[in-house]
Amino acid sequence: LPESGVPQLVQPMIWDYSADLDVEDKVQLIEKYQRCGFSKVWFASAFKGATGVNQSLTLIGHHLKNQLQWLEVASRTPPDVLEGIALTGWQRYDHFSVLCELLPVAIPSLAVCLQTLKDGGYSEQVKENVEKLLGMSDLEINTYMR
Q: What GO molecular function annotation could you give as one example from this UniProt entry (predicted)?
């Protein structure tokens, strides 16, 4: 792979939407990419659309945990290696599936995930900022919001 020149042309993206991704496994994968000559990598997380093909509502807690796990991976990655995080929001699992977790119901999750990534973690202050931004009185993280 190093002799092919590919590592100078592309930057790999590591995708994982799980709430309990294996941090050590991701760190080792990044190290492997570096040994192959890739100087930069991207991470891909999700704020919606990754928990079930027919999911209607977004469970913020699942996606928040995913962001926190990626932040843990980032903290164990040399700062000059991580190019960025693509925060995805899938609408369907394939072109033949029904739509899932439409954007309006996922906006609170998007706001929590963005604020968490921006601040480098989740705190009561993040929750208060999102509630104020969205005009909500009580943001529910671990139950389905209606």
A: hexosaminidase activity
Give DSSP secondary structure letters for the chain: -GGGTGGGT---EEE---TT--HHHHHHHHHHHHHTT---EEEEEEEES-S-TT--S--HHHHHHHHHHHHHHHHTS-TTTEEEEEEEE-S-SSTTSPP-S-HHHHHHHHHHHHHHHHHTS--HHHHHHHHHHHT-S---SSS---
pTM for the whole structure = 0.92
pLDDT one-digit tens code per residue, 55-74: 888 999 999 999 999 999 99
Rounded Cα gap, residues 111 and 67, in angstroms: 12
Q: What is the pLDDT of residues 100-141, one digit of tens each?
A: 899 999 999 999 999 999 999 999 999 999 999 999 988 988
Which amino acid appears at position 45 of this protein? S
Q: Are 131 and 107 in contact (CB under 8 A)?
A: no
**CA-to-CA separations, 125 to 6, 49, 122, in angstroms, rounded:** 43, 26, 8
| Residue where the block lists tokens 């969205």 | 134
